[in-house]
Amino acid sequence: MIEVLQQGINGLAIGSVYVLIALGLTVVFGILGIAHFAHGSVAMFGGYLTFTFVERFGLPFFAAMALAMVAGAVVGLLIERLAYRPVRDAPHINAFIIALGLTMMIEGLNLLTFGADQVVIQTPYRSVFNVGGVAVAELRLLVILTACALVGVIALLMSRTKTGKSIRAVAQNRQAAVLMGVNVNLVSLVVFGISSSLGVAAGALIGALLAIAPGVGEGLAVKGFAVLILGGLGSIPGAIVGGLILGVSESMAAGFISSAYKDVIAFLVMIVVLLFRPEGLLGKR
Questions:
Q1: Is the pLDDT of residue 285 over 70?
Q2: The pTM is what?
Q3: Distance CA 221, CA 223 (A)
Q4: Whole-number Cα distances in Å, 238 to 40, 218, 231, 280
Q5: Which of 71, 124, 176, 257 is the most core-located residue (most Cβ within 10 A)?
Q6: Which residues touch 133 (CB under 8 Å, ≥6 apart)?
Q7: Residue 163 CB coordination number (10 Å)
Q8: CA-CA distance, 69 to 200, in Å (whole number)?
Q9: Distance between CA 259 and CA 252 in Å, rounded?
Q10: Which residues pair with residue 128 across a beta bridge?
Q11: What CA–CA distance (Å, rounded) separates 95 from 230?
């Protein structure tokens, strides 16, 4: 029982990172209908940037992550304005091809700027708490709490602010929102800024929790889309539930079977869910 709880805690930590990745993808796909495959590469950019702020400038981890999130928001604005907006009304295949091109371009820029070495973001959070025989690492706990805080901020933004109402209006009916005076271009910019900030936060947390290296971003993007499908396309609650399920499934598979099969087990869970609910756990029919 203790081993199950231990793997559950570990899974919640990595699942929290998946939640942030999936949330960033969800707000873009659910509102603008764009499969933003470059999201994982943006997350790696954020991880490397956080590492640079910590190692070269001596900033505390969370201060470095906050600055990287601001930089990530700017990158998101540029991506929306220069890459996706020109093809917003074009066939979806155009945005799909641009997303693949952006992935390769950002991965190449990451490689040229930060190098090919695997890096781990060093933090002072090395304590381990013993709770009823379960070892809870301070860093894992902070990862979970940070993800909860960011999810809470997004929830407040969407439900309590004028900007959030505009975003929800565009998601429900874009043409009606335009007729009601909603600035769709501004909404699109804000959505990409939010998405990239969440991706950068995920990249920073994964860099502190595990490691970052060239190619990791592509894997994160795949996991993010798996969470989207598992939870329900365009569903923010679905992204949260799906991310936690995927993280815990991976951890349980790694702990009780083999780490070599953790991805297989995680995606098997997704397939089983979709067999019974093709729209995802919290998706609409």
A1: no
A2: 0.92
A3: 5
A4: 19, 22, 4, 8
A5: 71
A6: 2
A7: 15
A8: 6
A9: 9
A10: 137
A11: 23
Give me 258's structure tokens. 């083999």
State CA 2 to chain mean position distance: 29
Residue 207 structure tokens? 């860099």
Task: Please count the CA atoms within 13 angstroms of the CA of 10 that sit on its side-chain side.
Answer: 16
Instruction: Name residue, tokens 């429900």.
Output: 172
Least confident of 7-21, 120-134, 207-221, 270-284: 270-284
Choose among 5, 28, 15, 13: nearest CA to 170. 28
Alpha helices in 34-125 (DSSP H): 39-57, 61-79, 92-114
Do the bridges between strand 134-137 and strand 128-131 make them parallel or antiparallel, or are there none, so unpaired? Answer: antiparallel
Residue 60 confidence (pLDDT): 96
Q: What span, in angstroms and rounded, lies between the C-alpha atoms of 154 and 169?
A: 16
